[in-house]
Amino acid sequence: MLVQHTKRAWRKPPRFPNKIREYRLKAGISQRKLAALLGRGRNAVSSWERGLSLPNVPRLLRMAKILGTLSEALYFQFYSTQGAEGELNGAAA
Question: What is the distance between the alpha carbons of residues 75 and 81, in angstroms, rounded to a whole number?
Answer without folding.
Answer: 13
